[in-house]
Design goal:
Blueprint: E1 7-11, E2 16-19, H1 22-26, H2 35-49, H3 56-63, H4 67-74, H5 82-92, H6 96-105, H7 126-135, H8 154-160
Antiparallel strand pairs: 1-2
């Protein structure tokens, strides 16, 4: 197997060589921050704040991660696996219930919307609703025949019944 400038030999059994370009290696996929990803990032920030790490840089070093990877995760852009997230949560000493919640957000962290179809029952992730309302600058709701749930008062409910 020949390894020359700009090539990396990796095909030990096949005798193949693979082309390698520094420009291509540095090109990372464009990741966007999403609502689900930001919720995950906020939960991770809270977990990290409860630790003895002086900075996220110290935590990235402990995880053997590039600081940009941890930054992207904390800013809602994902970029990690469930195993890596579990390692992060373990190092931070996160409680099992919170671990379950944060791990449940990871598989869909790349989805841009947070639509929860629930029909006659309340939202599945009530915690998410509360956190997003607290963080929102503007709330938009449309109900053709009734007042939106967030504006309903006990007096409204009595009158509607």
């Amino acid at each position: 197997m020949r390894i020359g400038a700009g090539e990396v030999g990796c095909g030990c059994l096949t005798g193949q060589t693979f082309s390698y370009s520094k420009e291509k290696a540095r090109a990372m996929p464009k990741r966007f921050s999403t609502v689900r990803g930001r919720e995950l990032g906020n939960g991770l920030r809270t977990a990290i704040a409860r630790t003895d790490f002086s900075s996220s840089l110290a935590l990235a070093e402990r995880l053997d991660w590039d600081p940009a990877k941890l930054s992207g995760l904390l800013n809602g852009k994902g970029g990690t696996s469930a195993v890596e997230l579990g390692l992060l949560l373990g190092i931070c000493g996160v409680e099992p219930a919170e671990c379950d919640h944060l791990l449940s957000l990871l598989p869909l962290a790349h989805v841009k919307s947070w639509l929860q179809v629930h029909g006659t029952c309340p939202p599945v992730h009530h915690r998410t609703l509360v956190e997003n309302i607290a963080a929102a600058k503007t709330l938009v709701s449309w109900r053709g025949l009734a007042l939106p749930e967030m504006l309903q008062t006990p007096a409204y409910m009595r009158a509607a019944m």
